Structures are given as structure tokens and as C-alpha cells.
Hints:
The chain is α+β, with helices and mostly antiparallel strands. Strand 9 and strand 10 (145-153) form a beta hairpin. The protein contains four helices and 17 strands. Strands 2, 3, 4, 5, 6, 8, 9, 10, 11, 13, 15 and 16 form a twelve-stranded mixed sheet that branches. A five-stranded mixed sheet has the order 7-1-14-17-12.
Amino acid sequence: MDAKRFLAVFVAVATVVFGSCKDELTLPATVHFEFGMVTFQNEDPAQGGQKSNVPSPNRYAIESGVLRVDAIEFDGRRSHGKDVYFISNFSEAIVSQLESQSSNIKVDFDIPQGEYNRVDITLHLVNGTDIPFRLEGAFSYGQSNVIPIHFEYAYTEEIAIKAKPKEGTNIILSKEKVSNARVIVDTEFLFRFLNPGVIANANRVVQGGEEIILINQLNNVDVFNQVANRFSKSISVEFE
């Protein structure tokens, strides 16, 4: 085989291989989004924050929550192939019960497979009459007195989060398997510096005939600000 013919064959083979790799990078990998939370229980400082069989005078727990999202924005940078960007277009808002990791609609995306060295997820909180983020729990004082706690975050915002892989340094998406993107609200991060004594002295309101401790932008504002200032940093996204 002469040199010119060898070069032509090499170029043809290289073109086929390169084209094949390029096609592989356009194949879709399914990514399923689910939303959950880390629950939190705080004890009175008199017991050093340690759990005990003897109830402390003041303690509270955050055990459930709702997150409402209008849209999810995906901005991914790949080691090979073009970067990927899109924003979701759902017919209705995503309403997630965080304690049960359940949502009103299935949140799946087909995203070009490959190795992503950076993925930024932006959650667009609902814009409307519904409260975008709500947590519920209970405050216990004395031996048997319990009062509900409601935390409400009513601001419409875009929460930007740098996603991380469960293992390794890069996020790998493959057409061969479904990847889970777990959006987690860490309520321990939100409330861990909030002394039970502060909640014990919080103002109370009556909703639906029930007395509750309501923490929002209008009620117990000082407490609200302490928690709300940590909200955007309390959310993580992990791909597994």
C-alpha cells in the first residue's frame, strides 16, 4: 500500500471512530430527580445537646416539609463533547413531600451521557399564592406539653447549587442506567444554632383553631431571619 492510500484509509477510519464517539456523546441518559430532607431534633442545652431517656424541659423537632418548585435549570460542563444546558418546562409546579421523598409528578430528564466535571442545578421556587418552602415540627416543654412549629419561607427565589457525585470527583451519566439526583434540605443545618429557649419564648398564633408557633417574615421575625439566612446553603444535590 502506497503512502497516499495508507493516509486516506487512516483518515477514513479516524473519521468513522471520531464520528462514532461523537454520536455516543449525544445519546440520552435518564436522570431521575427526587426531593428529601434531613430531619432535626434539638435538646435543651442543660443536657449538653445529648439525647437522654429523661425528657429535657425544652426540646423541639423538625420532621416534615414541603418544597414547591416551578422549574429546574441544568448547566453541565463535560470533559468531552459539548456542554449541556436546559431549563425544564413542566405543566405544573413540582410539589414534594420532603419527609417521604414523594412528589406530585415524576421528575425525569433525558440528558446527554458523558463525564461532567461540573453540574450546576438551579431550583426556581414557585411564584404564586402557594408558599414555596414549609417545614413542620413540634416543640415540647415540660413533661407533656407540645405545640406545633411551622416555618414558612414565602419568597420566590432561584436557588443555585453546585451538584456533587456520590463518589469520585466527576458526575458520570450513562445510557445504560438511570441516575438519581437527590435534592436534600438539611434542616439540621438550618436549625442547629437555634436554642430551644428562643423558641420557648416565641410568639404564638391561632390557625384553624389551634395554637402554633409560626415562624415567617411576619411572625417571630428575629427567629425567621436566623433560619432564612441559611436556607440557600441548606440545599444539596447529589448524583448517584
